[in-house]
Amino acid sequence: WAFFASAAILVLALFNQWPRTLTDLVFIMIVSPAIVYFCRGVTLRGAVQVFANRAGRVSYPLYLIHWPLLQFYLFAIKSLSLRGGEAGVMDLGFFLAVLGIASVVTFWIEEPILRRLNQTREASVQGAQTAP
Questions:
Q1: Is the pLDDT of residue 63 over 90?
Q2: Could you tell me which residues come within 8 angstroms of residue 103 by beta carbon, excluding any fewer than 6 positions away?
Q3: Span 101-114, pLDDT tens digits
Q4: What is the CA radius of gyration of the chain?
Q5: Measured on CA atoms in the order 39, 40, 42, 45, is the torsion positive or negative?
Q6: Residue 42: DSSP 8-state
Q7: Which among 10, 27, 42 is the end of a domain?
Q8: The whole model's pTM is what?
Q9: Are 53 and 108 contained in the same domain?
Q10: From CA 112, how far away is CA 117, in angstroms rounded?
Q11: Domain span at 23
Q12: Most confidently modeled of 52-61, 70-79, 122-131?
């Protein structure tokens, strides 16, 4: 029930007619904490757990790259003067592209580097333990 309550709150926050600053404030101060509160202690299983784990792994690279790409995208949309359905298709394409780039950064750059650093750290700790 926690997932559905959180999803309902999120949908209400996304589809409203309030001014943008008020929507952002309500989301930051009420919706986000409510999602965390309702989902605490929830145990995920199966495909939902796999999805949540992957989303968590991709979240930081997504956070890092979305702003520069968003600025480029907004410039492109403005330059092309797209509106309506064309802009909606472009929005979906942009979302998928950013998600794809974040996934590439996560699985082919960040995680291999972290594995290598952990191997180096473990080797140095083992060497320090065997030293006289």
A1: yes
A2: 58, 61
A3: 999 999 999 999 99
A4: 21
A5: positive
A6: P
A7: 42
A8: 0.65
A9: yes
A10: 9
A11: 1-42
A12: 52-61
